[in-house]
Amino acid sequence: MRSISLSIIPATLVILFADLALAAQWRFDCGKADSPVAEGYSRLRSDDSYDASRKYGWVSGDARSVDFGDHENRTVLNGDAVQSVGDLAFRADVPNGIYRVRLTLGDLTKALGSVDVYVNDKLVGEHVAAWTPGSYRGFDQGPAGWWVTVRATVEVTSGVVRITMKKNQSFYDEQLAEQKTWETPFARWYHRKPVRTEPPYSFINYPFAGNSVMSIEILPHEPGPVTGDSDHLKLVDEIDSPALKDAIEKYNQQDLAGAVEAVNRVNEPEAQVAKAVVSLWLCGRLEVEKERTMVPEAARILRRYVPRHPEETQLGEILSDTEVFLKGWKIHTQRGLPETNHFIENNKAIGWWWTIQKDSPLYWKTRLHIGRAGHMLTPYFPCIGTVGEIFRHLEKKFPDNRFVKYRLHGPGIFHRDVPGDFGDWEPCGDGTDFYDWVMVDYEAKTKGAPPWVQSLYPAYAWLVDLSEWWIKFRQTPDGGVGGGTGDDVEIVGLYGYMGYTSRGVSELCVRGTHNLVDGVWHSGAVDRERGFCKPMADAEHSAEWTGNTLGMMVQIDYGNPTWIERSMKTAVLMRDLWTGINDQERRQFKANFFGATQIGSGDRANDSWINYRAVRPAHAVLWYNQNPTIGELFVEMAENWLAAAMSTDRGKPKGVIPSQVSWPDVTLGGTNSPNWWTASHSRGTVNYDFIHQQYKEYIHQLLITGYQQTGDAKFLEPIELEYDLAVQHGFAPNPLETPRGRRGPQIGPGAGRPGSEKWVAANLQGVEKWFEAKRMLEGRKGKIAPIRTKEEIIAQANHVNFNLKNRWPIMTTEAGPTDRVAFHGIVDPFCIYTGGGMGGPLLRAAVTYENTTKDFAAAVMAADSQGLRILYYSLADDTCKIGIVPWELESGGTYDLRLGIDQNDDDRTDAVVDEQSFVFPQPGSVVYVNVEPRTAYIIEIEQTQRGRKPGVAPDPGISAADIDYDNGKLLVQVHNVGSLPVESVAVEAYAGDPDDGGTLIGKAVIESIEAPNDLKPRIQTASIDWSLPKSGCDVHVLIDPNDTIKNEITTFNNQAHALLPKKEKPKPRQLIKPEEMINAGGRGRRR
């Protein structure tokens, strides 16, 4: 019996027993004569030929000793080896008996493959390969050096153990020849060019590259207390434990849930080792998802027992496999922590897990996690290549496993857009555990509601749930969610805008977004002094870090000086580094590669549409405060793009916006381009051809900004001319139809000659932007124009619902890189609820809400600067006093609001229940109405008196970050984030919330704060004498508490609170290397 009781045994007896146990063991560390030898092993050199007196040695093969040099995973045992270019054999003379033979093959400098291993002429390892993933996302493509251990039990009857390694490349050659007759299966993925065009398309082993032996072990075989395989176990030792016997019996009956319950009842000390072994066999089964708790517990038991019993070879192997499993699991589950990379960590985990062989209790579960981690490298459907083969192999034994079924029969396999269809995956758990797959049945809640509500509400609610899942289960203390900063910034908008839609629905989304964006800023990747990522890279990727985050925070955390001043740094880079005055005396970007301190040159010297992703934060500041310096910069850049669009150089049709222009000579098409529609694509460049029309919305926004800043209609002329060209050639857009993504390039005879007007018209994207521009020019004529129909709402919402239902696992527990979580159209519910769309800081919103609860549906049917028309339906249990929060109405205007009931879903008001008139003081001001449950409302807001256009104004503001304490003084930094100076700013500080019993700490007055129109922050500090209690204090600060400052931009930033003393921030994330940025973030990188 094997007990883990801690009885005290005299040290001399322990040594004696250990010597007796180890006397009949042969352990050889293969390598060079001068290399270290692993403890407990004997040195085995390449020239140690068999000698009868020594009783061991090489008997065939042209062997040589090698050292592998430095390697991250080098140990004494694997750092060198004995190698042979051909077959290799080893002999040891041993007493007759049953032995366990362990042969570790490997090379840390290259992968090995196609090796057959024989022990006493019995094949014990067929087509052995030693490798680990060596490419960024290629899994088995480009393998790196590693090792693998072949294990076998052999009965010796002739006094000899002979181990032979032979080349056998027949399987590899046959499979390669077969696959050469195939069309690449990778053409089924979305890439224009398949990621693999030549075989092998899946793992078929590797060509023979010689033999390389790291170690040889021949040990008397000592079975463990429990033996068996994944289907049947046998209790070898006589152990008096009813629960243990019950667990084994239930295991053999395939009652695995019962076996888990029984093994957890095993309490006898003498049964603990056997309990650990049974637990590991249970965890190896795919039906049992207990490995996160049961495997570590089994490891703890075996770690206490095995070192004291080295003669128990099977238990030693089981413990070794368990440690490898846990090592891979830790790497895999911590792949999103700071100083890690999602792809690299999954590669490491795969490498460790691949060493676990078929005789291990954990083999099948390890294969499952290899498949999961491999799919995360390229998370596309259908599941093909090596990953697909792994899951098909698993399906033969575990056809009902949820992970297997989802990978083989999930999204991309069955596209059944049927209400209630959840794809081929089964709900699991209640949502409290990371690995649960649960979607709340929001559709049931909409029974009896109008059809548009039945489609739209579940889409919105599920997106809130999805966003909260990521914050709950994936966000780390530094704010990251597991994909690395470059990818996390591509999903953060989902969380932010779901929290922004209605205040109070998800504080978790709002807080999580704040933490992620702040974490990006404090990461080592962003130059905080200059406000942009440090390494120079192509604009698509270098701009994501701040371009996807800061402007959004200006919008959703309205008035917070932190985001405004960080975003203002972008304008400084625009002015001083990234742009200059070209040969035509206009301002333009100097290159489409740049960073915080560098700008590209050569064939990168192009002003491309994507460049304007980088300046979104500056544009958000302009939107917020009309900073005149920033406004002038945008107008100057718009002038250059207007001139490029109106130019007919190189045969470009007038008004067509070229995809890029060169610096400084403004060549249409870019530096060294062969024509105006084709860019140069020399090595190391990321230039853009006109035909793909990527990122054009940035230039539309720039031209519209030029018009908004100057009132000059010339800036909208290219938008009109492109629309006219599309109409002329039969490509007129529908004003009420939102395009479902970009069309693919239109080529061939029917599309016209490349560069011709017909060809251009066939390939133009975004021409529907003219409808918006025309409304700006002409103003309102009659009733407010609709921007969508109910049919479109239903279609878009159903598209989102279908994708969420089918993709939920791959968007949560099975997610790969975070920039692959979203799908096209995922933002549509936000746009419908808010009347927003692409543009502005990231997305724009005409209106948001508050006090709605999560259970509501809203659809903005029409929106402009003079009015709104909203459909609203509450699914809450009680009457709600909801807030309508407009963002794009003219400030200072007078408006009438009418709340009516639509009783028969015909878009007509049947009964008016509320009418009110109000002056709209500033963006973000709230108008309240009462709504009853399950009633369809139409909310109409119509201007009766014009307001003012956005203009310069003062804006004193504070945030929690501005409140601090030092040496007997409460310090409050007050910012001016407006565009006019502010005078006499009163400051009041309270211990606790002044609206809930807080007591006054003190007052101060700041005489004046200049406006930051030179792009330098303007901050003054108020100091109040005070002693901070030892227990800390929640300090609330009010500025301008009596509303004496007139016409400030917003009052939302006039109050903040902070818990003092403050805690330290987590350490910054690791700086991603410049060469990794191009390949590690965004949709345009190489695959």
Rg over CA atoms, rounded to whole Å, is: 34 Å
Point out poorly predicted stretches: 5-23, 413-422, 1068-1087
Distance between the termini: 55 Å
User: Judging from the principal axes of the Cα atoms, what is the shape?
Assistant: globular
Structural class: alpha+beta
Approximately how much helix is present in the residues?
A: 25-40%
Average pLDDT over all residues: 92
Q: What is the number of independent domains?
A: 5
Percent of residues in β-strands = 15-25%
Structural notes for this entry:
It is a single chain. The chain is of the alpha+beta class and 1087 residues long. It folds into five domains: 27-195 and 209-220, Jelly Rolls, CATH 2.60.120; 226-333 and 353-409, no CATH class; 524-763, no CATH class; 846-945, Immunoglobulin-like (Sandwich); 956-1048 and 1054-1060, Immunoglobulin-like, CATH 2.60.40.10. 31% of the residues lie in helices and 22% in strands. The protein contains 29 helices and 41 strands. The strands form twelve sheets. Strands 1, 2, 4, 5, 7, 10 and 12 form a seven-stranded mixed beta sheet that branches. A five-stranded antiparallel beta sheet has the order 3-6-11-8-9, covered by helices on one side. A five-stranded antiparallel beta sheet has the order 27-28-33-30-31. A hairpin with a 5-residue loop joins strand 19 and strand 20. The longest helix is centred in the middle third of the chain and has 24 residues, at 451-474.
